[in-house]
């Protein structure tokens, strides 16, 4: 949870809403309280002006920057990508993000890294504008006593982003299984009915007799 909050200060998740976290992270009442902590621009009102209001469950996660230019200015010219569907939209997105979070190294000899950039072996070109988000172990404390290593934290981030890209994945699979089961059950009833209904037409014999003159 702490890692996700830290990432939210840099990356946007425009396609994820507060309601998606209900009963996944917190109960509905608690999520409503969290949503009200953010001010959301809404409107226009009766006077044709936009206004600020407390967030509700149907609101999307607030963006960390008002526009792309502000995002680039705050990150040394780099625009942090939206992470809503990053793991599914990018080829091997899950493995890429995990490797990227653990791929920060000291630059090899002969590689000049200008100020504001960092060397990452898994980033195309090797130089990335994002500082190491998991710079050391022990950034968070797990309630179950799990060792807080950089690898473990990177795994947690990837798991959350995978869920965020398809928050209805499990429900969709269950619905598909129910639909498939209902279809198979329907076939069990349709086949006997079809045979019973059409058996008289398919087994009859029609003889044509020449009419007597």
TrEMBL record:
Localization terms from the record: Mitochondrion inner membrane
Keywords annotated in UniProt: Electron transport, Heme, Iron, Membrane, Metal-binding, Mitochondrion, Mitochondrion inner membrane, Respiratory chain, Transmembrane, Transmembrane helix, Transport
SUPFAM superfamilies recorded: Cytochrome c, Cytochrome c1 subunit of cytochrome bc1 complex (Ubiquinol-cytochrome c reductase), transmembrane anchor
Required co-factors: heme c
Any single GO CC term annotated in Swiss-Prot or TrEMBL for this entry: mitochondrial inner membrane
GO molecular function: electron transfer activity; heme binding; metal ion binding
Amino acids binding heme c: 11, 130
Family annotation (Pfam families): Cytochrom_C1
InterPro entries on file: Cyt_c-like_dom_sf, Cyt_c1, Cyt_c1_TM_anchor_C
Presence of the UniProt keyword Iron in the record: yes
Cofactor annotation remark: Binds 1 heme c group covalently per subunit.
Gene Ontology BP term (one): mitochondrial electron transport, ubiquinol to cytochrome c
PANTHER family, sorted: CYTOCHROME C1, CYTOCHROME C1, HEME PROTEIN, MITOCHONDRIAL
Family: Belongs to the cytochrome c family.
UniProt name for this protein: Mitochondrial cytochrome c1
Species per Swiss-Prot/TrEMBL record: Karlodinium veneficum (Dinoflagellate)
Phylogenetic placement of the source organism: Eukaryota, Sar, Alveolata, Dinophyceae, Gymnodiniales
């Amino acid at each position: 949870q702490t890692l996700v909050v830290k990432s939210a200060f840099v990356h946007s998740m425009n396609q994820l809403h507060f309601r998606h976290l209900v009963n996944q992270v917190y109960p509905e009442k608690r999520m409503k309280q969290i949503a009200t902590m953010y001010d959301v621009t809404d409107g226009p009102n009766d006077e044709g002006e936009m206004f600020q209001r407390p967030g509700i469950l149907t609101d999307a996660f607030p963006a960390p920057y008002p526009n792309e230019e502000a995002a680039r200015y705050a990150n040394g010219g780099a625009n942090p990508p939206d992470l809503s569907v990053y793991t599914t939209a990018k080829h091997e997105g899950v493995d890429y993000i995990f490797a990227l979070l653990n791929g920060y190294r000291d630059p090899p000899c002969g590689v000049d890294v200008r100020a504001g950039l960092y060397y990452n072996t898994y980033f195309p070109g090797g130089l990335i504008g994002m500082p190491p988000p998991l710079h050391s172990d022990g950034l968070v404390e797990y309630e179950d006593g799990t060792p807080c290593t950089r690898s473990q934290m990177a795994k947690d981030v990837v798991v959350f982003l995978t869920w965020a890209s398809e928050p209805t994945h499990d429900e969709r699979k269950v619905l598909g299984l129910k639909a498939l089961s209902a279809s198979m059950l329907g076939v069990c009833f349709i086949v006997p009915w079809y045979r019973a209904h059409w058996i008289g037409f398919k087994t009859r014999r029609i003889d044509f007799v020449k009419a007597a003159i």
